[in-house]
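Feature request, filed as a ticket because there's no other form

It would be nice if the structure record came with a short human-readable summary line next to the tokens. Right now we just get the raw output. Example of a typical job, pasted below so the devs can see what we mean:
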Amino acid sequence: MENQPTTRQLVIFTVVLSFIVSVIGTILATGILGPALGGGEGSSPFVFNRPKVQTQKTTEILRQDELVVKTVEQTSPAVVSIVASKDVPVIEQFTVPLGGGIFGDDFGIPQFRQKGTKKQNISSGSGFIIGSDGLILTNKHVVIDTAAEYTVLLNDGRKKVAKVLARDPVEDLAILKIDGSGYPTLQLGDSSKIKTGQTAIAIGNTLGEFRNTVSVGVVSGLQRSIEAQSTEGTESLQELIQTDAAINLGNSGGPLLNLSGEVIGINTAVAQGAENVGFAILINKAKRDIDNVKKLGRIVYPVLGVRYVIITKDLAEKEKLGKDFGVLLLGDANTPAIVPGGPAEKAGLKERDIVFELNGERIDMDHSLATLIQKHQVGEEVRLKVLRDGKELEVKAKLEERK
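Raw output as currently delivered:
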């Protein structure tokens, strides 16, 4: 009985024990006794053993940010703004007095009349320098007005008068020229190597006011087809890049870049009523235009001289065509299937022939006849595989220049 602790002793013991446990826990948590306990330096899971995955992700994010910043710094000097200006009429209002003025100056009929003209900016867009001698690539709709004058605003603040060398008759592309030399240029990439999901950077003159605006996203899709509205009406655009990098009004004609700073597309359109759904023309399509202008001073297109419909499985089944890919040569009341005097007629092609291969390349929804033809030059002979009346045959045709 004498050795039993009193209540006061129990309370003191409990407090002291709690203090000791607290101190030891703190020491263990800070890793001070880690080496002594055999855990080694940094063995505490609260302080040192952070998951390596998180560190790797952070590093990857930082690395991509650095790549974007570096790409923008390197390419922005070659991105330009293009402003269209034009003489527009100045309209003034005047009043024709009633009754020859007998009612006073306060009573009259308001009328309008032109009082001369003044030069005014009517539109703006973007472009980028592709030649140190001042060659610039942009969209056709940016420089569509043949009566307008065009001024290029360089990244360093200089202004240059631009001359439109060529407007592509098929694609929404145009090539301009400014005087001078030694301009910074962009490197053209290979759009055949684009992958869905890769990073995409768009630079342009947003809203015609915020020059060299940068937006970043990914390639959202490939082989897109759209009907685009412009001041000249509706234009059909094929095989486009879709991106969620913001493309706003004024961005048209600007570059779509990869992380290597190479141009993979030319920003051309945005979907109305949607968020971050933009489209760009493949840079490989522009390369042919650039070569044409450098060699010939104009853009030329090879043609076969046919009108056709693309064959789908539904059409093949409905018409019992015998092929569920390729194109069916078919005319209408206004346009014949075979252009008179054209390459197709000279080669012996006929209406309702099915053309399903060109120079060994299959013609289908993803590889249109028009696209395959554009890979070749005016005057070049191509081999066509044709299905006629259930029999396959090979036809050779010599491409001619589109008039």
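Something like this underneath would help us a lot:
The two ends are 121 Å apart (CA to CA).
DSSP finds six helices and 21 strands in the chain.
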